[in-house]
Design brief:
By secondary structure, the protein is mainly beta. The chain contains two helices and eight strands, in the order βββαββββαβ. Strands 2-3-7-6-5-4-8 form a seven-stranded mixed barrel. A hairpin with a 2-residue loop joins strand 4 and strand 5. The longest helix is centred in the N-terminal third of the chain and has 6 residues. It is globular and about 35 Å long.
């Protein structure tokens, strides 16, 4: 079952950081693929992540190489949750996140 808190408008959810890699600063969020699908954030779609009042542009990607060096990416891991990282950069330090922190994930509005 989902562990995130969906936003009332259905465009996103709040997730918790459940692990931080001491080696590379990648984060594990308690979000699952179904949470992204419910929010309308498909594979290879960009979304916004808010952490401590800062907004980051993140790709729901296939792997870390889905983005350029230093860019943000979220990818599913083998445990069924999502890694949040930056390609060859420290996501935890950049967003000042640690285990137990909450982040907000929201799909971007369509441009008309």
């Amino acid at each position: 079952p989902s562990q995130v808190t969906p936003h009332p408008d259905g465009r996103g959810f709040d997730a918790r950081v459940i692990e931080v890699s001491a080696v590379n600063g990648n984060l594990t969020l308690n979000a699952q693929p179904g949470d992204f699908a419910t929010a309308g954030i498909g594979l290879m779609n960009w979304f916004q992540l808010t952490a401590h009042d800062e907004i980051f542009r993140v790709l729901n990607g296939r792997d870390f190489n889905s983005v350029k060096r230093g860019a943000w990416v979220a990818i599913p891991n083998a445990e069924g949750f999502f890694w949040l990282g930056r390609n060859y950069a420290d996501a935890a330090a950049a967003a000042k996140l640690s285990v137990g922190d909450t982040v907000s994930v929201r799909r971007f509005d369509e441009v008309r």
